[in-house]
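job 3f2a | input accepted
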Amino acid sequence: MSPWKAAQPGDPVSAIDTPALVLDLDAFERNLQRMAKALAGSTVRLRPHAKSHKCPEIARRQVALGAVGVCCQKVSEAAVFVAAGIQDVLVTNEVMGDAKIRHLLELARQARIGVLVDHPQQIQALALAAQAQSVKLDVYVEVNVGANRCGVAPGDAAAPLARQIAASAPLRFAGLQCYHGSAQHLRSPQARADAVRSAVDAARRTVKAIEACGIAVERVTGAGTGTFMHERDSGVFNELQAGSYVFMDRDYGDNQRGEGEIAFEHALFVRTTVMSRPGADRAVVDAGLKASSVDSGMPTVWQRPDLVYAKAADEHGTLATVNEAALALGDRLLLVPGHCDPTVNLYDELVCIRGDRVEAIWPITARGALL
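job 3f2a | predicted structure (371 res):
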């Protein structure tokens, strides 16, 4: 943690120390409103993924605009949002280990908590622990609809797990998790549509297999920022887990937008300073690997097509420049991170700006919540 803050409310934007994670509140609020409008009048619910922002203030604003709660990826992450007053949290992950299950059930005493399974052993462990603690827990069967990560095969393979959950008194079979993560960043609209069509078919077959056993499937949840309109209109999904729409990042920005798809705005930036100008062909900024994740590629320099973020070291970012006059020592720039989720996890706070002023500082309270 830094011994001092990058900014204080009321500061001019020009005074923000660097590197800093900056949120453009006007763009952020427009993104929130666009998502709310996209689901207005629909029976499809929004449960945005909080792993994107890790910030209770953002979660509260999402719930205020109609979200039923949030998703989290880790139990410790969920604990942060329950403590902040979010009363419906789905951990979109399998949870193994006595300590993690104990913590999960402690949260279930305070809020409605859901969790995923894809193996009978997980269900047995959850049921035994929940019975011992007299706690009720929502359990979803995760189905592999194309991401090839966790999840059972679509169709009949999910039915025995649903029966096992339904037969376990302290557990409630809540539905299916059907998230196709790799579809989110397919560049062409047609490729994304085709991938989701396959996922929807897999989800539909799985619902039918479980319902044939006499078990109702209340919820089919999944989707992300890159595909949520397809799941919304599928007639199968009734809950969406899009998260990155609040910020957007360079990788999502590289997707080609299809007809009718919503144009969310870049709202999250890393503010950085030119600290070295060793030659006409390059400049060095103070935002490197520890300021912006590059797992999805390098950041771009906001509204500067003449500059290319070419290389990242721990604390250095090297920009390719076209001439000596392109940048000077001390110049401030905004970077659009390649991947917003792990970039947010590098910072303790969001510096929230409106116009040319810092309006607020929001703690990234779930930063580092990996357990």
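job 3f2a | The chain has ten helices and 17 strands.
job 3f2a | closed
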